[in-house]
Queue: 3 jobs
Job 1
Amino acid sequence: MARAQDGDGTAYLRLLQEVTPYLRALAARRYREPQDVEDAVQDVLLTVHAIRQTFDPARPFGPWLVAIANRRFIDRLRRQGRLRARETPLTTEHETFADGTANLEERTDRHGLEGAIDNLPPMQKQAIELLKLKEMSLKEAASVSGVSVASLKVATHRALRSLRRMLSERNDGGRR
């Protein structure tokens, strides 16, 4: 470490390579998951790099490194404890579509939607086909249809409102 402080990059690289397995062994005593061990080792190596100028070459390197490692490990364990205290484990109750038959009605009502689109006025039907079904941009749809962008926006808005109304009436059985 003293040579690394003097600017010897090769010595610094060798130092990091030699302390990494030792740090990994220290971290493995505190963490269960391999990714936590590696993350902890990286934290220690980054800290050593950031504060390497604080090492006193007149003192032993090992205790300096172990003190840094222990502090980083404790900090990391505290952070994980705080995070886990705020987390809620997910179960199947939290799934949006836990049931395999969810949304079955929507999937089978394609013919109803196609029929509703066919019942739209010609301008609205064309706007829906170009913008929503063929996924054209407003500029492309205006070019193809010969209608202004503003007219296409209005026709699309009206068509969507009409489709919502028609489909809700069909699902309610006409009870509106």
Job 2
Amino acid sequence: MIEIKDLTKTYGSFHALHKMNMTVAKGTVFGFVGPNGAGKSTTMAILATLLAPTSGSVKVNGLEVTEHPKEIRKLIGYMPDFFGVYDQLKTTEYLHFYGASYGIPRARRDKLIPQLLELVNLTDKADFYVDTLSRGMKQRLCLARSLVHDPELLILDEPASGLDPRARIEMREILKELKTMGKTIIISSHILPELAEMVDEIGVIERGQMIAQGKVQDIQNRMRVKRILHIRLLDRVDEAASFLRDRPHTSSLLEDESGLHVHFTGQDEDQAELLQAMIASGYGIISFNEAQTNLEDVFLEITKGGDSE
């Protein structure tokens, strides 16, 4: 669905994007993550034909964005991180305005708009003025706006930005529903744990370059070279801590009320050998398990050493 090759965007001597590469297959929900200023919004604006690249190739459904902007705009629904609403319009009037802008006949809009309001949980706000809606409701209304022409690709730049926890949950559930409808979706977000529940793949961008892309589980597995073992014992905790510090593959150790947390750089066989050694030394082990990495762990590990802008 999306093919980006050597995408570069410069402002004078500053490279917002530098030879960035990215591919997103049709029907994929793609999480686009990176520090502030890394180039996420710039990439999305170029995909939405709102910004011209300095060099490189950007294709949506086989069409080059610089050569076929009108055709591409029919394929995409774009929700920017900051957007305007027409406050003096009612919710239905707002959607009618955008539907008419896409050339959708009135009779079709009359059927479509109630369906969109139901999708984004705004049916009971159909006759409310836009300026009376909460921020979360406005976010959902703008999502409905981006869906009015039934696009194949949704580009959502920080769709949960500034929302309270309840509004974020509502937005997450709507995005899950869109996923079941087969939409290709690109989502940028800093709320990484919630993003992990929705996406099929992630791409990590830093300083204008894609530094990691793939399925969430695959990237998590690649980051497992540094594991954290959580060990709970019946007694002799301090003695066990000294024992572990002297073992190979242990780089640091933390003790708290829940047990011992050991940074471990070995493989599965080394982990099994460590457990056997502890049992052979008579330690009463209640549990011995590897802590699961999450998307935040992966992000921090991949971008370690980079500066957020």
Job 3
Amino acid sequence: MFTWACPQELRIAAMQALEKLDPECVQSFWSKGGINQEDLMLAPLEVPMPSECVRQRRHQRVRLQKPLRAISVNLKENCRPEIKTASLSGGLATISRHLAPGTPLQLRLQVGMRHMQATALMRDYRAQDMAFEIVDMDLVERSKYRRLLAGNLPQNQSLAESIEAHSETILTQ
């Protein structure tokens, strides 16, 4: 009854877009938006304007402190990837068997006693590691996934980002 009309992930994306368009306007919405600094840490990477190539990675990759276990639920022989490095749009996992690039996987990610569902496409294969791209995830589960990744950011990096954001706030005032 007394909740936000839009899911947290949509509000975060809107705040990140508004911050790029009008940083001063963000300051007025910051207190009443229900979004904290940790939610904004994993913003999309900047696109260099005079770029001559297509950048595949859209979000910052985070090395997880403990590998995240997942289970595929849509294959004849299900596999159990262990995700070592992840971003909001994909990651790198160790898989016990070879999967052809482009294979869709319905993944159930296990975080303690909680589970998150995601649909991923498998990408290139290197030794035992395989890259994957998340192509579908419920917004509520994506919000949980964002918190998991933000919690795995190195402490000095998150501290440096919050100091930088705070100094920008002081400069604009």
